[in-house]
Amino acid sequence: MYGELHGKVAVITGAATGLGLAISLRYILEGMNVVGDYVGTLPDELADAEKKHPDRVKFVEADVSDEKQVEGLAQTAIDTFGTIDVWVNNAGIEKACHTAEMPFEDWKNVLAVNLDGVFLGSREALKHFTANKKKGTIINMSSVHQQIPWPTFAHYAASKGATEMFTKTIALEYADQGIRANCIAPGAINTPINAKKFSDPKQLAQTESMVPMGTIGKPQDIANAAAFLASDEASYITGTTLFVDGGMTLYPSFQYGAG
């Protein structure tokens, strides 16, 4: 737990499922004021949290690829809690397709959520931080696939590679104002988007064989990283990527001296 996070205001995109849900619940546990966006149905965990902490938790429906809706999300946080201290761009989508057969609409949809959403959220955070001389924090959800190629997911990998360089760029651009920007790059995490794959013992074993630590990660592992990067413990860290991947990016085929 990080005592200095108590009372801080965080905006979290894609808060309703998987990693965003875990980050939201961890930030609420830290005593933070949380504004999260969701698409579709608000999960019971967040609805219960909103009822339990009506003075510091608010969730709104918003599409992160829509400029006006992201602006509205930021304004909701400011109107409700007076400020923004941490902005987590977590919302993301993926859809497998061979690149030669990929519809342009699929390409545009993935880039709209995964990259435009990161830009729009970061821009709103930066506008607020600079206007109020606030040493705020931006955390962008990347992936091991900012580094590892992923056939049939060219749009997803492209969006994550771009997210890394975008994050480095804004980190450098605003470092002299005390504003920090970092990525978290999850590896294989047991989230709803992976539930079907990991329910197949063969696919689960295959994925585990690609992780040197031999296990699939939990959403809480990512939430722990998000709490750390938002805290004062990370006050001298900016423009970097924190890989939370059990070693997946360490060329696991070489693990036992092969090659």
TrEMBL record:
SUPFAM superfamilies: NAD(P)-binding Rossmann-fold domains
Taxonomy, superkingdom: Bacteria
Entries under Pfam families matching the protein: adh_short_C2
Alphabetical GO biological process terms: bile acid metabolic process
InterPro entries, per database record: NAD(P)-bd_dom_sf (IPR036291), Sc_DH/Rdtase_CS (IPR020904), SDR_fam (IPR002347)
Keyword Oxidoreductase: yes
Gene3D superfamilies from the UniProt entry: NAD(P)-binding Rossmann-like Domain (3.40.50.720)
GO molecular function, one term: oxidoreductase activity
Keywords for this protein: Oxidoreductase
Family in the record: Belongs to the short-chain dehydrogenases/reductases (SDR) family.
Protein's name according to its UniProt entry: Sugar dehydrogenase
Source organism of this protein record: Floricoccus tropicus
